[in-house]
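Entry 14: structure prediction run for Plasmid replication, integration and excision activator. Input pasted below.
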Amino acid sequence: MAIQGPFTIDCKTLFPLGCGVVSAVTPINDFERSTRENPVQSRDRETGLPMWSVDVIDFDPDARERTFKVKIAAEVQPIPPEAVSGVPVRPVYLEGLQMTPYIKEGGIRPKIAYSLRCSGLSAPKNAPVAKPDGGRTESGRAA
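Run finished. Output tokens:
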């Protein structure tokens, strides 16, 4: 039996150090139905909801891939969480996160890559907060 379709994964499992929004949330155009004069927004095949896109960055400094494009199926344009003072990107939690592996062609040889999609954006739960005591966070790690 082959496993089909996307895998559901918690945002904290995929991004243990967190992730942040680095672009605006934009509609994804349906290239088959759109024209130059009349862009048509793509819809999710399963739910029929409009599709949106946002770029996020992995906060892990050792991550091989740092930036990801995440597709969002939502009735209205998702709004990223409020900016955090002193942080150049907006920390985000990807609600209802799913990943789909695929073969990425190009380069010397093909490699496994992942497409990401979610159902919404929210502020991270229990996000570490920088403390004035030597840059330590609530988790005890250096900031």
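Notes: The longest helix spans residues 11-14. Will compare against the previous run tomorrow.
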